[in-house]
Amino acid sequence: MPNPAIPSLFVVIWATGFVAARFVAPYAEPLTFVAIRVTGVALVLAALAAATGASWPQGRTGWRDALVAGVLMQGVYVAGVFWSVHRGLPAGIAALVGSLQPLLTAMLARPVLGEFVSPRRWLGIGAGFVGAGLVLAPKIGAAGASGIPPVALAACLGAMAAMTLGTLWQKRTAAGANLVTNASVQFVGAAILTIPMALAFEDGRIENVPAFWLGLSWSILVNSVAGILLLLWLIRRGAVAGVASLLFLVPPVSAAMAFALFGETLSPVQFAGMAVAAAGVAIASRA
Asked: Cβ contacts of residue 269 below 8 Å, gap of 6+?
């Protein structure tokens, strides 16, 4: 894995997605917001590519590979999570479902990519999962099993699987691709998926208030543009199972942000979970 500062920055940026989603929830429908967001990100990255003279994918294969990754990682995943939470899935349970991704990634890394997942990395992944579970335990207990809508839970599980497959696809197909143009095409793929979904299932409601535009700007420029470029760089530089294990730190960091910004309390068990998750990521990243 690269310098620890870069993965740490990625975790913080990625965790802000949950904060931004909560921040804009009163002002826009979920699929409409996602459609606007991915379109804005595609335009920003295209402008950045033009300004830097970055090379675009060569031939149909390059465009296809980036579009497929974008549909999975930026379209199905983001839309699935937003939709499932909007349909009543508790955010804590949605975060816990997302934290299962490293386990699925590790299981598929060997048959799909030929990557060997060492026992030490499995230990780190297991510790990360336990730590994430400890952080989320109070929220899960408060939600109650009877309050989990099955369709929403299935959508969130599907979103997690899509992110896993997109990560593996990106690692396998985009070794030589330019990061900026590849990411731009990915978000075009996400827009191709989410715009029709928003038009078909929502009324396109947004409220023209400063809070909406602040949340949208943060989601586009920081959470998406900076976040996806860091993610793609990490995937290229590191073993995919080790990169995926970083996502175990997202629920603890998100919980800390929610405590600071929204006054959500953290129990001693949650603080212990943060430490366990951090230790698991450190073990998996160095395996």
From this structure: 134, 137, 138
